[in-house]
């Protein structure tokens, strides 16, 4: 399994527009974060989790020419507003792109990208095949995927497990039965917004509590804001098996 962190930032990214804090002014590339998304290649399957406003830039950076599917965690702008750019994959591959999302998220896609679903469609629009995500295991080609239900304040969202790897972002609560899906992992990626508590995201302490509870061999934090602090300074205070992710980080499991 090959994994690449396409983006590890919040809805604003880092640096934040008009901000002159030390993190936003940092010259360390690890402090520059596009909106959170992940690329996974497993058994020949190529997929992306979330397609936010930086999707085009992210695909150009990794020189991706084909894509089998996009999994959507939820419907917020920083996770879906890049979907128009699947047009390039449609042209190259000659078929629509498979998009996996729960019903509520599909409703948002149909509203935001209404031109995609109109009877008389404008030429050149993106082509999407929408597939319904439910809280039960499914597969794409030969790859088994297990959704993990979390809550983003009151909004239900999905994370995903692939074998011994799991990705869970934009959550501030995971029920006990869903935590069981996070046991016996080699790698867990979980969102950690900042040091201080937040109404709809794990802060650093809460993310570390979840990691300590489910005990993956290694964990990476993502969806990181400029309020977390400088990458290299935060790394020094983390447990030995926990790291801040950064854009372009690659893992091979």
From TrEMBL:
<dbReference type="InterPro" id="IPR036866">
    <property type="entry name" value="RibonucZ/Hydroxyglut_hydro"/>
</dbReference>
<dbReference type="Pfam" id="PF12706">
    <property type="entry name" value="Lactamase_B_2"/>
</dbReference>
<protein>
    <submittedName>
        <fullName>Phosphoribosyl 1,2-cyclic phosphate phosphodiesterase</fullName>
    </submittedName>
</protein>
<dbReference type="InterPro" id="IPR001279">
    <property type="entry name" value="Metallo-B-lactamas"/>
</dbReference>
<feature type="domain" description="Metallo-beta-lactamase">
    <location>
        <begin position="34"/>
        <end position="223"/>
    </location>
</feature>
